[in-house]
Design goal:
Elements: H1 20-27, H2 32-41, H3 47-56, H4 62-68
C-alpha cells in the first residue's frame, strides 16, 4: 500500500525588492546571462539546485523536483 505524505505548504518566494539590481536589469531588458550572473551574486540559486537542497533536507522528493525543474532538453 503506498504511503501518502502530508501536504507541506510552499515556502514563499523572497520579495523581489530583495534583489534590486536584478529588478533593474530585468526592467532594462538586459541580456539573460547578465541577469543570471547578477541573480547569483545576490544569492539566488538555480531551481534544480534549490530543489536538490530540499531533497537532502527531506522536504521534498527527487520526483517532485523533476516535475517543476526537468533536466535540460526534457521540458
Amino acid at each position: 500500500m503506498p504511503q501518502h505524505r502530508l501536504h507541506r505548504p510552499h515556502r514563499p518566494v523572497r520579495d523581489p525588492a530583495a534583489f534590486p539590481e536584478v529588478k533593474r536589469l530585468v526592467n532594462a531588458e538586459a541580456d539573460v546571462a547578465k541577469i543570471r550572473d547578477q541573480a547569483y551574486k545576490e544569492g539566488m540559486k538555480p531551481l534544480r539546485i534549490s530543489g536538490a537542497m530540499k531533497v537532502a533536507m527531506g522536504l521534498t522528493t527527487f520526483e517532485e523536483v523533476l516535475k517543476v525543474a526537468p533536466p535540460p532538453g526534457k521540458a
